[in-house]
Amino acid sequence: MRLAFIMSELGSGLRRNLTMVISVILVTFVSLTFVGAAGVLQMQIGQLKGFWYDKVQVTIYLCTDVPTNTNCVSGPVTADQKATIQGLLDSPAVKPYVEKWTFESQAEALTHFKEQFANSPMVDSVEAGNLPSSFRIKLTDPEKYQIINESFSATPGVDSVVDQRKVLESLFSWMNIATIVAVGVAVLMIVCAALLIATTIRLSAQSRAKEIDIMRLVGASKTVIQLPFVLEGVIAATIGALLASGAVWAIVEFFMGGYLANGNTGTPIISTTQALVIYPILILLGVVLAGIASAVSLRKNLKV
What we know:
Layout: H1 2-16, H2 18-49, E1 58-62, H3 79-89, E2 98-104, H4 106-116, E3 134-139, H5 145-152, E4 158-163, H6 164-207, H7 209-217, H8 222-263, H9 278-301
Antiparallel strand pairs: 1-3, 1-4, 2-3
Helix pairs in contact: 1-8, 2-6, 2-8, 2-9, 6-8, 6-9, 8-9
GO biological process, one term: cell division
InterPro entries: ABC3_permease_C (IPR003838), FtsX (IPR004513), FtsX_actino (IPR047929), FtsX_ECD (IPR040690)
Protein name: Cell division protein FtsX
């Protein structure tokens, strides 16, 4: 009986306040889309950091079949040249600056490339021979990169010496700024959504003041009286959260996985599968937001 009454009141409230409910859905949709976009951007930053960013500070790329400088005019790096480079890494002149190093073969480079660029259309067109083998070096002091560069850049068999962190530092800085901006806008929109939900619930309660008085007289509990109003906000916010989840999926699928992946074949892009973790968070956030806003509004404006 109580459940039927609550559902009846809920339906009545949704019909009477349809315009406000739609407003709540739209504001929740926009605010949670910004939240989801910020989450996707952080996931993309993590994807870009990938396999080596947190582990490698300097990479010594070795010569391949395609020479790019005078060190490689004699062809691909030889076994003797690799041994010479390894010996130099372990020499007293260089070793104090090197915390650890690893060698990555062309086959291993291809495996890591496929892991990092799994969502890129170029992944199937790259072969091991297209990628250079390399020594991956972690420095004891990242500021000593120039010492490694000077020690190895002219060594036979070395194609280039790259400080990977320097290459990506500015990119990640801009992406982190973009994330902060997205989060700031999301917080502002969430505040607007909470205020709109609270206003909607208050107006809905005021429009049914006589019905509420009758319910009090017949001994209805606070829960029975307040629950239909709370559910109005929760349902509207949940619909908005579902729409936001759909929008985030579309961003990842069509913009990032489609447009960006096709236009930037050298950039690893997150997939819709990786973004799945964001959707339940958005829905939960919408439900919690509506529940809290509705409960606070009822406590202040509906004395039961």
